TrEMBL record:
CDD domains: DHQS (cd08195)
Domain 3-dehydroquinate synthase N-terminal intervals: 71-183
Residues making up the signal peptide according to the UniProt record: none
Classification via InterPro entries: Dehydroquinate_synthase, DHQ_synth_AroB, DHQ_synth_fam, DHQS/DOIS_N, DHQS_C
Organism: Lysobacter enzymogenes
Protein's recorded name: 3-dehydroquinate synthase
Gene that this polypeptide is encoded by: aroB
Xref: SUPFAM superfamilies: Dehydroquinate synthase-like (SSF56796)
GO BP, one annotated term: amino acid biosynthetic process
Reaction catalysed by this enzyme: 7-phospho-2-dehydro-3-deoxy-D-arabino-heptonate = 3-dehydroquinate + phosphate
Binding site for NAD(+): G109, V110, V111, G112, D113, T133, T134, K146, K155, T173, L174, R175, T176
Amino acid sequence: MNAPRKVEVSGEAGYSIEIGPGLLADGARLARALRGRHALVVSDGNVAPLYLDGALAALAEAKPGLSVATFTIPPGEHEKTLERFTECLHALSELGATRDATVLALGGGVVGDLAGFAAACWMRGIDCVQLPTTLLAMVDSSVGGKTAVDLPSGKNLVGAFHPPRAVIADTSTLRTLPDRELRAGLAEVVKYGAIFDAGFLDWLESHADALLARDDAALAEAIARSCAFKADVVARDPYERGDRAMLNFGHTFGHAIETEQGYAGTTGDGLNHGEAVAVGMVLAARLSAALGRAGAADAERLQRLLERLGLPVRIPAGLDPQALLARMRLDKKADASGLRFVLWDRAGAARIVSGVADEQVLAVLREG
Ligand code: NAD
Ligand code: MG
C-alpha cells in the first residue's frame, strides 16, 4: 500500500486528514487517534454492514483494552434529528464514556454531522474522529468542524463548531458508493476549482473519465487537493465570519432549488444537494457574466465540465423563478440593499458580493 496522503489543518485545534485505500483496516492508525479507553462508533444502516465489523476488528487487535460500543441509525438526511442525537448521547452514557472517550463517525455527512454534534455536547466536548465514507464527506463535511442536526423547520439549525481530532478517509469505501452520490461529491470538488484555482479545473477536465471510473489515484488526488483548499480557508476563518462563506459558491441558488423541491432529492425524485449545487454554480457563473464581472466563456466552461461529470446544469422543469427568488430572500443571505452571492471574476477567483438586485437574479433564473 502506498503511504496515505496527508493534509494538515492548522490552528489552535489543528488536526490531520489522512487519505488512502485500506485505512479502515489499519488498526494501529485508528488506535493512534484515540486517547482514552472508550469509543463509540456511529454509523448508518448502509455503511455499517459493509465496513463496521472490519473497523471494529482492526481496532480490537490494535487496542485490546478498548471498550467499544456502536450506534447505528437508519440511512438518510431525515435521520439527522434531535431524537437520534439524544439516542446517541444515551449510547455514550451506557458505554460509561468519560471525558477522554472518542466518538468515531463512520459514514457520510449525515453520520458525521450527528456524531460530531454528540461529541461536541457529551461532557461539554469529547474527541471526534471522522471516518468519512462518501466523497462529499471526504472533501467537505468531515473537515472544518461544523456539526449539526436538523429541525422540522430547517436544516442544520442546531449545532456547534467542534473540530475533529483526526480525519481518516479510506478511499476503498468509495467503491460501494452509489453513482449518484459519487457525482454529488464531484460537484463539491469542482466547486473548489471554481472558487480557488482554475488550474484545478484544468486537472478535473483531463481526469473526468478517471474520476467517474473511480480510479484510486485520481480520486485520492482530487480529495487531497479539495481538502487542502478547505483546510486553508477553515484555518483562516474557523467560525465562518468572513472568507469561509466563499465555500457557498453555487449554494444560494442550490439551496433555493432544494427547498423549493421540498428536499425531494433525499427521497430520490428531485435534485440532491450536490446536483442542486451544480446547477447553482452554473447560475452563479451566469449571474457573474450578466453583471459584467466575468466572461460568459467561463460559465460555459464550468457548465461543460459539470455535464461531463454527469451533473445537471439547468433548473428542473416546473420550478418558478419568482418562488426561487423568494426562497433566496429568506435564506439569511439578503439584506436591505439586495441579495448576497458568491460570484466570480473569472474561473478560480470568487468573491462575496452584496446588494445584487432582484431583477438581475430573476433574469438569470428565467433563462433556466
Ligand atoms: P449521507 O451521509 O446521507 O450519505 C449518502 C448515502 O450514501 C446514504 O444513503 C449512505 O448510507 C450511503 N453511503 C455512505 N457511504 C457509503 C459507501 N461507502 N458505500 C455505500 N453507501 C454509502 O450524505 P452525504 O452526501 O455524505 O452528506 C450529506 C450531509 O452532510 C448533509 O446532512 C449535509 O448537511 C452535511 N454536510 C455537512 C457539512 C459540514 O461542514 N459539516 C458540509 C457539507 C454537507
Ligand atoms: Mg455543499
